[in-house]
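DM from R.C. (forwarded with permission)

"hey, sorry to bug you on a friday — could you get me a structure for this? deadline for the figure draft is monday and I only need the backbone to look sensible"
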Amino acid sequence: MKTIKILTLISIVCFAFYSFTTLVQEEWKVPEKYQKMKNPTDPKADLAYGKSLYNKHCKSCHGKEGYGDGPKADEQEGDLGDFSSEEFQAQSDGALFYKTSFGRNDMPEYRKKIPDDEERWLIVNYLRTLAE
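My reply, with the result:
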């Protein structure tokens, strides 16, 4: 009987640990090259085009205001983030460009859907307008 209790306790602890580790999203590691990459576009130019690209490719998951509350958000497993937050906005343009370009997990890679680097930079510029 004591063995069963111990095995049950161990199982509960293992399950709790597994559940916790799957809920915590791993840190997104952006290569240094991209961290330091400078945005080659004018952040004030073509904002309307950047917004239209965001609406076409990003809004369904990330939402109109970038809160991570788009109509497809519930289908995603990871944290979609809040683009208006200080934490998000503190990232370099290069980091945002990298994440948009290469994706990971539920976040798709956009180098094929949006092959023009400049268009992905314009999305980065638009993301800056979502700050609180």
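R.C.: lifesaver. The chain has one domain: 28-128.
me: no worries. The domain at 28-128 is CATH 1.10.760.10 (Cytochrome Bc1 Complex; Chain D, domain 2).
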